[in-house]
Structures are given as C-alpha cells and as structure tokens.
Amino acid sequence: MDCKKEQNKKNCNCSYDCNKKGICCECIAYHRARKELSACYFDEEGEKSYDRSIKHFIELNS
Ligand code: SF4
User: Fold this and answer.
1) Pocket test for ligand 1, best of 20, 34, 52 (most atoms within 8 A of CB)
2) What is the total count of domains within the chain?
3) Which is nearest to 22 in space by CA: 40, 41, 36?
4) CA atoms within 13 A on the CB side of 38
5) What's the 1 CA to ligand 1 centre distance in angstroms?
6) Are 7 and 38 in contact (CB under 8 A)?
7) What lines the ligand 1 site, CB under 6 Å?
8) Residue 47 near residue 38, CB atoms below 8 Å
C-alpha cells in the first residue's frame, strides 16, 4: 500500500512547519510517545496554540 502523504496533507489542519505533515503514522506515533494528540484532534483555535496535550484536549471538549 502506498503512502497517501499528499492526499493526507490536503486534510491536515496542522499549522506548524513539520516534516511529518501528511505522514499520519509518524505524526501519531510522535505525539503518542509524548502522551499528546495530533493537530487533527483540535479545532482551528486549539491547534494554533501548539498545546497538543491530552489535558488541553479535554479542556476544550468538556
Ligand atoms: S501534529 Fe505534530 S507531528 Fe503532526 S504534523 Fe503537526 S507538528 Fe508535525
């Protein structure tokens, strides 16, 4: 199965300049190792804070 990087990038809301953009498996693994969530778990405003913590996600969604 080919990587869908270019297709994924079209749906990626991450505003951070990052070489994992569109490589969702690497993106999720990177943030999971830090007990965080990827940008796509957050809305536009939440994502812009670059706070990818689970605590931040819960605060925004409770
Ligand atoms: S969410 Fe994190 S790992 Fe994923 S593209 Fe954005 S900065 Fe990179």
Assistant:
1) 20
2) 1
3) 40
4) 17
5) 22
6) no
7) 14, 16, 18, 20-21, 27, 30-31, 38-39
8) no
Q: Which atom of ligand 1 is nearest to 21's Cα?
A: 5
What secondary structure does DSSP assign to 36-53, as a single string? B--GGGS-HHHHHT---B
Which residue puts its alpha carbon closest to atom 4 of ligand 1? 27
Using CA atoms, how far apart are residues 41 and 27, in angstroms rounded to an integer?
Answer: 12
Q: Taking all residues of the chain, what is their mean pLDDT, rounded to a whole number?
A: 97
pLDDT tens-place string over residues 22-42: 999 999 999 999 999 999 999
Mean pLDDT along residues 6-30: 97
Residues spanned by the domain of 41: 5-60
Nearest to 15 by CA among 37, 36, 46: 46
